[in-house]
Design brief:
Blueprint: E1 3-7, E2 14-18, H1 19-25, H2 34-37, E3 60-62, H3 64-82, H4 86-95, H5 100-109, H6 111-118, E4 178-180, E5 186-188, H7 189-201, H8 221-228, H9 232-249, E6 253-255, E7 264-266, E8 282-284, E9 292-294, H10 308-331, E10 332-334, E11 341-343, E12 350-352, E13 359-361, H11 384-418, H12 420-437, H13 447-471, H14 476-500, H15 508-539
Helix pairs in contact: 3-4, 3-9, 4-6, 5-6, 10-11, 11-13, 12-13, 13-14, 13-15, 14-15
């Protein structure tokens, strides 16, 4: 008999569980224990093992100081190999987009060229060009050297006093503090501070070059710190930009897209494009549980179970089509010849396509030439040309109606999820009413809030299942997918009705049990939906009715 071991957080003791104990601890499908569902028994729960589900990805959240430590270790590594100072090593790494292997290879091959390109070394002076037509024979040189100017009394004139340096940017002759890089382009400290602040604040640049025109020398971090002086806010922004530049260069790192958040997520499993055809890398940054986003695409939301490529296709189609689809369906028809969309702007049924000049009847969509003088009767309705035209019209309308079928349900679940905030307020009032009219404590009425959380999460899942179903190819796999979708949707609607049902003080305990049981059932239906879809990606079961990036 196999056994697992687990360490309690409160006491360093080992608890041994065998297979029979695990079976006894499992929750049965048909009912929900109060310990699992509503948090009533949280004090009595044994810490569960952290097992990652098949539709989840392994990732870690990193704060800005943690990322800075990783960057510093990379800089230390290059410093120890090249024997350069840390600011120089940092500039070299940024120049090579933090690709250590590429930097080491190129630097060992030609250190001077890499240093010049990175801006940490001055370019070599140009070689003097030799004359094309040198004169033959030795040239006589003059022995007389120009004599220094003499004063009228025969004494040498004293050189003129050196004029004070004036900044070539602001021309302020009152400035006394000047700074220069290794290129020796000198500017006043005030201009340097203004220039660096503008680069950081306005242009969001962290790789700053010398102010002189045509100069490629990079500004090292200590110089930036010195130039900014006591402006610590801009220095903090500079540090953040350095972290963002580092994160953007590393495939398995992504910066949290939420405003003012400085956390980074590391997800090696989703670092390649090929991996995004098998997983949906939904992650949460360490700053807040509400900072949920997709690691593999720019969608700042949980779009499971659909993969990133299909989700992007769906959103683009919705942006292009959804606003006008209903109007087009109601007010237009397609030309029978070129399929251009046509709006009728007069009472006559004799239509002429502006694009291909095809003439047809608006009523039966047949060629106008076959109507003769009896156009109003459309007596050639069943002839082949008219049938073909109507078939093309039907196919176009069917395509539009199919899209609207999935879009309307997608938008309905999205709207319902947005209204969850109002539902939270109503539910909180119900919880207070339950507490007053029954013997339940505030902790015991938390089952209502738990139910609302589950409904919101499952509606987000349902929303994206319609996007996936739109692109799935017809077949047995799509039918099984839609069966799971139907069961989840039915369970969610039943739980929503229970949540919004009026409260009867005499049936509060029965309502509590019903909501608790239904909440666990809905959770399990959602798990089944996500797990089956994830397995389908891994097994290659899903086929699409359009070409999808990454799929053969």
């Amino acid at each position: 008999m196999s056994s697992d071991y687990e360490i309690s957080d409160d006491e360093n003791e080992y608890y041994e569980y065998d297979d029979e104990d695990e079976e006894m601890m499992d929750v049965e499908d048909g009912s929900a224990s109060e310990i699992e569902a509503d948090g009533f028994g949280n004090d009595f729960k044994v810490a569960a093992r952290d097992e990652r589900k098949i539709y989840e990805v392994e990732y870690s959240a990193l704060s800005q100081p943690e990322v800075e430590r990783i960057m510093q270790s990379e800089v230390d590594h290059i410093t120890s190999i090249f024997g350069v100072e840390q600011p120089v090593a940092a500039i070299l790494l940024r120049h090579m987009n933090w690709n250590k292997e590429k930097l080491i290879e190129k630097y060992m091959d030609n250190a001077s060229a890499v240093s010049v390109a990175a801006g940490v070394e001055l370019p070599p002076p140009p070689k003097p060009s030799s004359s094309r037509h040198p004169t033959a024979g030795p040239q006589r040189t003059s022995r007389r050297s120009p004599s220094a100017p003499k004063s009228p009394k025969g004494k040498r004139a004293t050189p003129p006093a050196e004029e004070p340096f004036v900044c070539p940017i602001c021309f302020d002759d009152t400035q006394t503090e000047f700074l220069a890089l290794l290129c020796d382009h000198k500017f006043c400290a005030a201009c340097w501070k203004e220039y660096i602040t503008s680069k950081i604040r306005t242009e969001a640049e962290c790789m700053i070059a010398c102010m002189a025109e045509g100069c490629n020398i990079a500004v090292p971090d200590p110089f930036v710190d010195k130039a900014l002086g006591d402006d610590r806010e801009t220095w903090s922004r500079y540090q953040e930009l350095l972290v963002r530049q580092f994160v953007s260069c590393i495939p398995h790192l992504k910066f949290c897209p939420y405003p003012s958040c400085t956390y980074t997520v590391s997800c090696p499993a989703a670092a390649t494009k090929s991996s995004l055809t098998q997983i949906v890398p939904i992650v949460t940054c360490g700053a807040s549980n509400t900072h949920v986003f997709c690691f593999g695409c720019p969608i700042d939301a949980d779009h499971r179970p659909v993969v990133c490529a299909v989700a992007r296709m769906w959103l683009k189609k919705c942006q292009d089509d959804s606003e006008t689809a209903n109007w087009i369906k109601s007010n237009t028809k397609e030309c029978s010849k070129c399929q251009s969309t046509i709006e009728k702007n007069g009472g006559c049924n004799h239509m002429t396509c502006k694009k291909c000049k095809y003439e047809f009847c608006w009523v039966c969509m047949g060629p106008w030439t076959e109507h003769g003088t009896s156009w109003y009767s459309c007596n050639r309705y069943d002839e082949k040309a008219s049938v073909d035209a109507r078939d093309a019209q039907t196919r176009s309308r069917a395509s539009l109606e199919r899209y609207l079928h999935y879009y309307n349900r997608w938008a309905n679940h999205e709207q319902s999820a947005k209204l969850s905030m109002e539902l939270y307020v109503k539910t909180e009032k119900k919880m207070e009413e339950m507490q007053i009219t029954s013997e339940l404590t505030w902790i015991q009425v938390q089952f209502m809030k738990k139910a609302v959380d589950v409904v919101h999460k499952c509606r987000m899942t349902l929303k994206w299942t319609y996007a996936m179903a739109y692109y799935l190819a017809s077949g047995n796999q799509k039918e099984l997918f839609e069966d799971n979708q139907r069961d989840l949707e039915r369970a969610v609607e039943e739980l929503s009705e229970l949540i919004e049902a009026p409260i009867d003080p005499e049936t509060i305990m029965a309502l509590r049990q019903k909501v608790t049981d239904k909440t666990v059932y809905v959770q399990k239906r959602n798990e089944i939906m996500l797990e089956d879809t994830a397995k389908g990606y891994l097994e290659g079961r899903w086929t699409w009715n359009v070409p999808v990036e990454g799929f053969d």
